[in-house]
Amino acid sequence: MSDTIHRDPDCLFCRIIEGDIPSQKVYEDELCYAFRDINPQAPTHILVVPKTHIPSCAAVTAENAGLVGHIFTVIVRIARAEGLEEGGYRVVSNAGPNAGQTVPHLHFHILGGERLSDRMS
Ligand code: AMP
Ligand code: ZN
């Protein structure tokens, strides 16, 4: 797992991680940062991002797969802490224009707190 953090000064989420733009922090460690989505799509809507700039889940490689695995353990921990485990939750990562990705920094949405739509698209 690489311990080098790459930041893009023009990237919204890099600036949030840096603290230049305020956010409602949920969790942080040396590799990732989690915060509440500014426009929640469910009662609980949290974004989990790597601290290093990776453009999307389409840029996951053997080199950064360990980091992505770590992020998934954090997702599970956050979901438990937020009381989502029993009812269940959805984890989403959009890649590219057809998926409607608006911020080009890898992020995982955690959505829960109510019965989510059966339709995922
Ligand atoms: P995506 O559409 O998958 O790229 O998701 C980007 C998400 O970032 C959207 O759900 C936005 O509501 C969220 N977002 C944009 N700006 C902020 C911000 N300043 N703080 C928290 N969430 C944000
Ligand atoms: Zn970034």
Shape: globular
CATH topology: HIT family, subunit A
- Give the low-pLDDT segments: none
Mean pLDDT: 97
How many domains? The number is 1
Give a verbal description of the structure:
It is built from 2 helices and 5 strands. It has about 120 residues and is α+β, with helices and mostly antiparallel strands. The chain has a single domain, classed as HIT family, subunit A. The protein has a 5-stranded antiparallel beta sheet, covered by helices on one side. A hairpin with a 7-residue loop joins strand 2 and strand 3 (about 45-50). The longest helix is centred in the middle third of the chain and has 17 residues, at about 65-80. The N and C termini lie far apart (about 35 Å). Zinc ion (ZN) binds near residues 8, 11, 13 and 53. Zinc ion (ZN) binds near residues 8 and 11.
What is the strand and helix layout of this fold?
Layout: H1 12-18, E1 25-28, E2 32-36, E3 44-50, H2 65-81, E4 89-92, E5 108-112
Antiparallel strand pairs: 1-2, 2-3, 3-5, 4-5
Bound molecules: adenosine monophosphate and zinc ion.
Zinc ion (ZN) binds at residues 8, 11, 13-14, 53, 105.
